[in-house]
Amino acid sequence: MSCCGLVFFLVATVLMHLLRPNLPFLSSFVSEYAVGDYGWLMTIGFFSLAIAALLLLIGLSMNLTTSNVSKITLGIFCAGTLLFSIFPTDVPVVLRPTPRGLIHGFAALIALIVLGVAMIAWGVVFNKNERWKGLKKLSIFFGVMSLLLFIIFLASPIPLRGLTERILLVWDVSWLLLVSRKLYHNAILISHAENTAYRNLKK
Predict the structure, then answer these.
(1) What is the tens place of the pLDDT at every residue in 82-122?
(2) Which of 16, 91, 105, 194 could form a disulfide with 33 if both were Cys (CB 3.0 to 4.6 A apart)?
(3) Domain membership of residue 9 as a residue range
């Protein structure tokens, strides 16, 4: 289910670029697609991302020996994603942001930066679980690069900030997809092993 939500978010984002070609790709934020024509589609996409991340957190917590840092950071990402889904951004950008715009912007920034920390924390967790050790270095690498891309996003000039935001989002969702796929694959292996053991007991 987590993979489905993540894929839907990516598909919705791509569709919004096609449905709203008037928004400049390089400078406009993805959040701007949630305001105006077809905004409901982007909003659903954001909610799908939040739900997918929450399902992933639940699945990881049920199947791995986790740490408080790993659970809290990914939980904060889930909460931040939910908040910026509920509160749309200000469009056009105004000198005095509205309360909803401030909540959206703050929640988005917190969610994006904390996910990089979560990737590193989960990398440490993966190293302590036999079936997940292979993802340790890759998860930590994703986390370091996510934090670097976040800094690049903040430091990029306004005409290119939309592009750097998109690169960061694709990178972050790629990690979520990678871990979701691993969780699903492990669930299948465990189910197969349990079925095999059950059949052997019946013989």
Answers:
(1) 999 999 998 866 668 889 999 999 999 999 999 999 999 99
(2) 16
(3) 2-202
